[in-house]
Amino acid sequence: MVYKGIGVRFLYIHGEVTAPPPPGAQLQMAMNIQVNGPPEVMEELVNVPFTITVSSMPPSIGITIRGLLTIQATSDDVKRISGQLKSGNVPPEIQAIITQYAVFEAGLVARELGIPPTIPLPAMAQPQQTQQKGPPTAI
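-> C-alpha cells emitted (139 positions)
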C-alpha cells in the first residue's frame, strides 16, 4: 500500500517510576496499543487516534502515550481504511506504523526515567591472559 503522506503526532506523553527496579533484575515490558474511537475522515485524509500503554514486570514503571496518526491517501484507500477501523479491524499497515513510532518514543521516555534498556547489552569480551612460559628446557 502506497500512501501520499504519513504523519504521527503525540498529544500526551506521561511516564512515571512507581518503584525503583530491583538491582540486577531484568525488567519484562508489556506494551498495549489501542485505536481509540472512530477515525476522522476527510476527502483524502484520515486521522486515527491511538493510545499506547507500557508497563513493566516487576511493576516499577508506567508509560502512556496518546497520539494521532494522519494518513493522506487516495479517496478509495481512505474509504477502505475508515471502513476497516469503524468495523473494529485495524489494518496491519496502520498497526505497524503506530508500533514503529510508539516503540521508539516509549524507549526515549524510559531512558529519560533512568530505566535500563530492556534488551541486554552484549558483554564486553575480557582479554584472556596467557601464562608466560619459560623457554623450553632440554634434558
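Residues 5-17+29-112 form one domain.
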